[in-house]
Amino acid sequence: MLASTMKMLEPVQPVRKPRCRVVRGTYPNSFGHIARKTCTKPGYTMYQESVLRYRQYAEGKKEDTFIQTLATNHISWEEITEKKMVDSAVKRKVRCKFEEEEKQLEERQLRLKKLLSDEENALLNEIESVPFTIEQQKESMRQRAKQLREKREEERQKLVQEKLDQKFRLECDPLRTATSKRLVQEIAEEHRRNSNKLELICKEKQMVDGIFREMNKKEYQKMLEKEEKENKERKARNKEVANVLREQMAELEENKRREEKLKEEELKLLKEQAILDEVKEKRDLEEKRRLQQETRGIFEKSIKEKLRRKVEDEREELESDIKALETLLEKYGEEERQKQQRKLECQKETQSYLKYVRSLLAEEEARKKEMERMIHEDIEKQWQKRLKQWRLDREMRRVLMDDVLRIRSRQVMDKLVAINTERAEAEKEKDQLLGEIERHKEEEAEEIQKERQKKSQYFQDLRGQIEFNNANQEVLKNLEEECYKKELQAEKELKAKVENLLKSNVSLCDQEHPLRRALSQVC
């Protein structure tokens, strides 16, 4: 609004007219054209400037339109708000005026009630404060007696006047003739009025019967429409319930399939757990067998190595001894002669040498045993080291396998717990669905029972209406018969009374007709 107002307050720029390039010449009918200014800008720049100017113009126009729309909306909003304020102010003033009027009326009623009560109290006090004296009582009694005498005198004068009028009517023949004619006219008028009244009663009865028939027809039509509508609604509701039941049955089937799938998965997990346990047992047995085989192989290898070394050492020693003995024997054979003498010495030396060799062999055997012992100790150390490493590796593998089995067991247990949870939820949903189905069946049975009760109540109401109409018709018929009988009796009495009056010259113009009285009593 401020921008539009500022824009409206801006000074109006004068419109620039295009310059005329036609110039009159010095001679008549001669003219010339002023050359156009040469453009210093290229065409593309001018095109861009024109596009920018057009965009600015469009944006300004759009902004003006938007501002104008805002202004229009603001004005319309102000008008609507002003109307609402005026209406609310008028309603408030009217309500205040009504409240003031009611308040003033209540105040006036209270003032009037107070004045009446004060006046009544004042009168009562005045009556109580002014006691009657004996003279005043006598005077009031005299006035009362005078009033009673005047009243009795007026009644006597009235009775005398009536008797005189009756005597005049009885003694006046023209009056009696006119009275009888007027009585006959009144009787005819009464008959006509009674017949019209009976026709009106019959018409009213027919109209009431038609209204009842129309009402019954409308009620029956409404009942049919209502039943049709209820049947449609019941069909739609049953269809919807059938769809819901189908969805619920599909959901139950889905839950059954899911439960079967969960059972299969549970069996699969249990089988997998059994396979893992079996693999663990097999692994332990294989590890034990491998350990036993490795131990047995190491011991067999060490024993074989000991035996081989022992055999090789003994063979080498025997070969060396045999070679030494052969050399000695050869020497002895060559020098047999020379050494015959020394044979015993040689034998002694040989025996000593053999002893020496045996001692050497014993020492060698001791050294071999020591070496074997040392080798055995080294083997034992290596074996203990290897066994320790193997035990560490086996412990690590066992820990790793236990971790894997524990993780797998935990996963299996988690899956079993999830399966049990899903199964419990599925059972719960199944119970809920079955409960909803049972509740829906109960509600439907209750609705059907209510509809049956409503229909039975409606038919009972219809029977009651029919019985009421029949009873009403019987009552109306009995009333008509009674009216007809009373009319006949009244006509008989009227004829007898007219005859008596005609015989006795008495007029009944001022008395009520008995037929009208009977009809008034009946109606």
Automatic annotation (TrEMBL):
Limits of the Trichohyalin-plectin-homology domain: 171-500
InterPro entries: CFAP53/TCHP, TPH_dom
Subcellular location: Cell projection, Cilium
GO cellular component, one term: cilium
UniProt entry keywords in alphabetical sequence: Cell projection, Cilium, Coiled coil
Keyword Transmembrane: no
Coiled coil: 91-165, 215-381, 409-504
Top-level taxon of the source organism: Eukaryota
Transmembrane segments: none
Main location: other
Pfam families: TPH
Family statement: Belongs to the CFAP53 family.
PANTHER family listed in its UniProt record: CILIA- AND FLAGELLA-ASSOCIATED PROTEIN 53, TRICHOPLEIN KERATIN FILAMENT-BINDING PROTEIN FAMILY MEMBER
UniProt protein name: Cilia- and flagella-associated protein 53
Source organism (scientific name): Octopus vulgaris
